[in-house]
Amino acid sequence: MKMEADLKVGIKEKANKMLGYHPQDAKLSKSYIAVAFIALLVGGFLGLLQGLNRAGLLELPTWFNYYQVLTAHGLLLILVLTAFFTIGYFYATLSHNLGGLLPKVRKLAWVGFFVKLVGFVLAVIPILMNEASVMYTFYPPMAAHPVFYIGLALIVVGVWLCCIGAFIQVANWRKNHKGQHVPILSYFATGVFVLLFFALMFVAVEVLFMILPWVFGWVDGINVMVARTLFWAFGHTLVNIWYLTAVSAWYVVVPKVIGGKRWSDLLTRVVIIALVIMNITGGFHHQIIDPAINEIVKFMHVFMSLAIGFPSLMTAFALFAVFERTARRKGGKGLIGWWKKMPWGDVRFLAPFIAMVAFIPAGAGGIAQTTNQLDQVVHNTMWIVGHFHLTLGMSVVMTFFGISYWLVPFISNRVLTPQINKLGVIQTWIWTVGMICMSGSMHYVGLLGSPRRTSYSTYGDHATALGWDPYLTLLAVGGTLLIIGVILQVYAVFNMMFFAPKGETEFPIAEEEENATKTPYWTERWGLWIVLMIIVVAMAYVIPLTDMIVNAPPGSPPFKTW
Amino acid sequence: MAASKVTHKSNKQQEEPLKGTWISVTVVGVVIVATYIVLYGLYMTRL
Q1: Of B25, B36, B42, the CB nearest to A320
Q2: Alpha-carbon distance A165 to A389, whole Å?
Q3: How high is the ipTM of this complex?
Q4: How far apart are CA A291 and CA A547, in angstroms?
Q5: Count of structural domains, chain B
Q6: CB pairs under 8 A between A and B
Q7: In this model, does residue A465 exceed pLDDT 80?
């Protein structure tokens, strides 16, 4: 009897090893993913409250006002959802690709998990007490309660621990596999963790050395321009970290799901390298209207921001080519008739596919906003909020949803049932329609002048402001559809995590074409890419930051505007 | 001769048409340019 049980355990372990499934690592990823989707649920409800308020349909109580809701919504979805999902997904990847996590790496990730959770709780308490309505960008001179910033600092430390864990894991694999390429998804993970590690340095300096001494009253004033610049060196990179995470699934997972092969391995790695080297320097395009930055610096940053467009266009070509090639091999005919051969009923394809399509207008909007004059048309209007929801809410989050339909069953040792797949397809369409209504109306009403980060107001029944109302109502309709999408998605994730039938699910990684050209080994020179990244960052930031510090105006005292 | 035919066929198989890809990428380019032109037009009219 015991022998039979031992045999069963042995077979199970062997099967898990074949699938690249490691139970302890799966538990870690499951915890990260669970937190991410709980954040989606709470943040989604807060988003609905905001949408209804902006449409003039709901008045929020004074003890939980629009700006508290806005800050919490941003923090939950921009920091918690994305950070926890990205780490959960890439740690599952590292475990699967690189033969299981090292015990010390797993421990680092767990410590990081709890440090982030504590940090998050500390950040939320002052928000609930109406002591931190500074929004997720926390621009000085608005000042929150010090505990809010201590919470943020802990979140940074928690993410850093996970970055260090990932570096140890990849370095260990490289040491034991000399001359081999890091598997492609782990290569993406390396790029993402390198970017996270360096981008967080900027915000850590801002919070630890500027904001905390200022809010504790140890210094009288803060250099607002330096703080904003440090924030956007981080914030801009964070946006592209989400993008790179989504792109990893587009390049590697989606081709497998549709029964195809990966496009050029070399091109994929070059795209990752380009995004790592050029990413951080785009930060100034978020400050393109700010005074105190001279035009030459702005020109340089516009160029650097637009440079990121090239790897994105390479990605567009590569993905369309994968779709067309796969569909034609399945018998697809005609110029566009081959689209019929795509697996539209498979949520693992549908969700990321719509995410990719959404990136076309999202990317186009981003390119336009990078130009000084064009940004003046939309700066600080609802257009920016629409752009953000199109990029993060559709391109990134819908890809995360698509990933969840195979990742959650994989790490839970369960299967994706046809019922949940169908639910996922319905959820995807609800989300798409909701986001088109909401983001579309945000873009349009922004062009009409409706400001962002402002609760509902008719500005004394001014005709212009009253003209925004129909679009704001459409925004609320979109928000209502989105909350239905949130509920369905969270239900699907927890169903797959705890209630779906037991079974083995594949971690889908597409193979290269049989006749693919061998990728040269220089792509593995991460030391060189990091040095190049630091040189580019230095080119972009040393002169303007020196100028801002040397020619600094008197520092600003803290303000509480709410 | 037969070997050459086989090689020719396999080269043809490798060169699968990507016309749809180029059309799709063109659409991406058109969306980018159109967004740029619309915002530039608004900027000029609001000067």
Answers
A1: B25
A2: 31
A3: 0.80
A4: 13
A5: 1
A6: 64
A7: yes
